[in-house]
Amino acid sequence: MPGKRARRHFSQLSEFERGLIIGMKTAGWSTRRVAGHVNRSECAVRNCWQQWTREGTHARKTESGVTRKTTRREDRRIVRQALVDPTVTRSTIRADVGVVIVPLTISRHLAEANLKSKRPFRALPLLPEHRQLRLQWCQARSMWNVTDWQKVVFSNESWFALGTDENRVRVWRRPGKRYNSVHTVLRHTALTAGVMI
C-alpha cells in the first residue's frame, strides 16, 4: 500500500478535496493537520489555500502551456493537404497555410490526425513476361551447388548523405495503410541498375 499512498499523495486534488481544505483552513486548522486529514502534502494544501486567498476560487486552471499559433481551420487545412498529396513537404504546407510556424508544429498536427512521415513502399511493375523470365532464371540455377554460387558476386548499393537533406521522397500516411494508396507506393518506371526484371 505505500506505493498507492505515494501515488495519491502527488496526484491532482479533486474538487471535493479542494473544498474540504478551504473549509478546514477557514475553521483555523493548521496546514500540517489539514494535510494529514486529507492525506496530501503540505505543499499541495498550502498552494490550494494561497490560490483561494489570492483569487477567491479553488478551481483548477484549465488553460496551461504555450498558446496555439494556428486556428482549428488551419489545422484542418494542414491535415487535408497531407491527405490530398502525401508527398507534400512541411515547408510547402507552411507556405500554403501562411502562418509562421515551425516544422515541428506541422508534424505534431499531422501526428494528431494519425499521419506519420514514412518512406514510400517501392514496387516494381512486374508484367507476366517478367515473372516468366525470373522463373526461368531460377530454374536454370536450381541444381547449382555451393561451389557454383561462390563464383557469383552479390552486391548491394550503400547510400550515404553528407548533408541534412536526404533528397528522398517521404509520404504522410496512417499506420497500416502502406499498400493502400496510389500516392504511398512508388513504382519504378525504368530499369534500375542491379534490379533484375
TrEMBL record:
Q: Which residues form a coiled coil?
A: none
Question: Where found in the cell?
Answer: Nucleus
Q: Which GO terms describe its cellular component?
A: nucleus
Q: Which InterPro entries match?
A: Homeodomain-like_sf, RNaseH_sf, Transposase_Tc1-like
Q: Where is the Transposase Tc1-like domain?
A: 75-140
Q: What is any Pfam family matched here?
A: HTH_Tnp_Tc3_2
**Chief localization:** nucleus
| One of the GO biological process terms | DNA integration
Molecular function in Gene Ontology: DNA binding
Highest taxon, organism lineage: Eukaryota
Q: What is this protein called?
A: Transposable element Tc1 transposase
Question: By which gene is this protein encoded?
Answer: tc1a_547
